[in-house]
Amino acid sequence: MKHFTSVQDIGDLKQALEKAKKVKEHPFADQELGNNMTVMLIFFNSSLRTRLSTQKAGMNLGMNVIVLDINQGAWKLETERGVIMDGDKPEHILEAIPVMGAYCDIIGVRSFAQFENKADDYNELILNQFIQYSGKPVFSMEAATRHPLQSFADLITIEEYKKIERPKVVLTWAPHPRALPQAVPNSFAEWMNATDYEFVITHPEGYELDEQFVGKATVEYDREKAYRGADFIYAKNWAAYSDPNYGKILSTDRSWTVDAAKMALTNNAYFMHCLPVRRNMIVSDKVIESRQSIVIPEAANRVVSAQTVLKEILLGM
Ligand code: CP
């Protein structure tokens, strides 16, 4: 593997899951592989899970890990080409990226959608500049349109908990007070579409995701119908994708909050969320604290997905 930005980069999904299983069973088996190798984790946005799990994954592989928060201690970066740099950004990303590349062997990047320019977001302007100018393998730690390390961990978790071969997995929109990117639902949809699961997306009208990510999923506006018989409920908020509302909040309707009444419609479904989660907006206290909530093992599997990906990148170098 050279770069890791989407499900396409992981190759055969069944093989990837087998590799992840081995990583989970023997987390320190490849300590020699990362000897004297440095992974640099660049954060343009906040993180708890991605930061810690990817550091742990690198350490499990014997790597040195450098973490940089661009907005806390580094120079503010200009990202537009051709700009007269007379403002508050003293460094251009076109110098910063190759400099960062000179100090490490692999680079992870977190850079969310800005919601200022849909084309820039959906063309992955920042992530692709790292790929183009760093000279190093690059992996996404959540970019503008996808969060593949999260989705890989989600898939690993579903495989661990599923009781039937082809579970019904439902991605449901849920309310949130701030406009959130589509990266997690896009990516989750992309990975679910790569499986043979029954996959349903439910959301209020106006929250349709980009068709390239919806793919073969069933979009069900009747929420109760979507929940019925579900084996997994995956909740997430996202802002509108379609023009002219790109990046806007169209609803904070709390009838979409995942609660016990809705979970009762399911096939005793497991509850999933990538975290952080706003309780009693996205999900009720009762559901997230129930035995069916698997958000903690889901988060724990972030080490497994990151380590599996880092290992594949190291093997490809
Ligand atoms: N799920 C996830 O990526 O969490 P963080 O934003 O805390 O990294």
3D architecture notes:
The chain is an alpha/beta fold and 317 residues long. It has 2 domains: 154 residues, Rossmann fold (3-Layer(aba) Sandwich), CATH 3.40.50; 149 residues, Aspartate/ornithine carbamoyltransferase (Rossmann fold, 3-Layer(aba) Sandwich), CATH 3.40.50.1370. It is 35% helix and 14% strand. Helix 10 links the parallel strand 10 and strand 11. Helix 2 crosses helix 12 and helix 6 crosses helix 7. The radius of gyration is 20 Å and the shape is globular. The model has no long low-confidence stretch (mean pLDDT 97).
Number of helices: 12
Lateral strand order in the biggest sheet: 9-8-7-10-11
**Superfamily at the CATH H level of the largest domain?**
Aspartate/ornithine carbamoyltransferase
Strand content: 5-15%
Poorly predicted tracts of residues: none
Rg calculated over all Cα atoms: 20 Å
Q: What profile does the largest beta sheet have?
A: 5 strands, parallel
Number of strands: 11
N- to C-terminal distance: 8 Å
CATH class of the largest domain equals Alpha Beta
List the domain count as a whole number.
Answer: 2
What letter string, H or E per element, gives the SSE order? HEHEEEHEHHEHEHEHEHEHEHH
> Structural class of the secondary structure composition?
alpha/beta
Q: How would you classify the quaternary structure?
A: single chain
Q: What overall geometry do the principal axes of the alpha carbons give?
A: globular
